[in-house]
């Protein structure tokens, strides 16, 4: 428990440092770009009318970026596995080989594992079945609806599996605690989500400045 607390504290310190660096970079980029453009360098000026229009037109890009489309599902899965109690079982399986499980935990693992297998089988049926509705209209795997939504669909499967285990194993009691599996990742890794959004926005601003638009 103490090691886990120390790891969490160290991770929080790293996140705070990254957040501070990103905020400073956001504050310094506009004046530095303005000084560079005033000195004759081909840099985009975020203080110009064109720069202000660009900023307002692209301020939502950090929410719609492909990077954030990866961050959110991963965060949800990590939080769900941790909150449901599956993280401890996975950790013991890696460190000790065969973890000690109570009868209720073994039954919950069996039911949750069966659900996950059925979930994956359903995805394969939609992909390889007679109609193959997840393939492209030309019958190819890439690009296709399957590839576009594979990460989000898989994350949903793991989150539901974690929720099922938490309910059946009585690791969480009451509907409020059980539903916390769905949003625990956002609550647990909220600072990393903010860091990801600021990083995407800073990258977009750097691209604008560098291209001299």
From TrEMBL:
Keywords: Membrane, Transmembrane, Transmembrane helix
Transmembrane helix found in the keyword field: yes
Spans through the membrane: 67-90, 110-134, 146-168, 189-211
Protein name: Conserved domain protein
Domain of life assignment: Bacteria
């Amino acid at each position: 428990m103490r090691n886990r607390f120390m790891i969490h504290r160290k991770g929080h310190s790293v996140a705070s440092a990254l957040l501070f660096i990103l905020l400073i970079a956001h504050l310094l980029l506009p004046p530095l770009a303005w000084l560079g453009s005033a000195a004759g360098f081909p840099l985009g000026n975020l203080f110009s009318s064109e720069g202000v229009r660009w900023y307002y037109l692209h301020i939502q890009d950090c929410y719609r970026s492909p990077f954030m489309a990866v961050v959110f599902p991963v965060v949800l899965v990590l939080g769900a596995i941790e909150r449901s109690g599956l993280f401890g079982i996975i950790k013991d399986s890696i460190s000790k080989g065969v973890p000690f499980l109570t009868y209720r935990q073994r039954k919950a693992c069996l039911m949750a594992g069966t659900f996950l297998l059925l979930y994956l089988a359903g995805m394969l049926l939609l992909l390889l079945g007679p109609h193959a509705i997840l393939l492209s209209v030309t019958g190819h795997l890439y690009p296709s609806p399957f590839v576009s939504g594979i990460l989000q669909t898989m994350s949903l499967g793991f989150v539901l599996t974690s929720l099922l285990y938490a309910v059946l194993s009585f690791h969480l009691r009451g509907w409020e605690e059980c539903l916390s599996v769905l949003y625990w990742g956002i609550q647990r890794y909220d600072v990393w989500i903010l860091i990801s959004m600021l990083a995407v926005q800073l990258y977009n601003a750097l691209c604008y400045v560098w291209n001299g638009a």
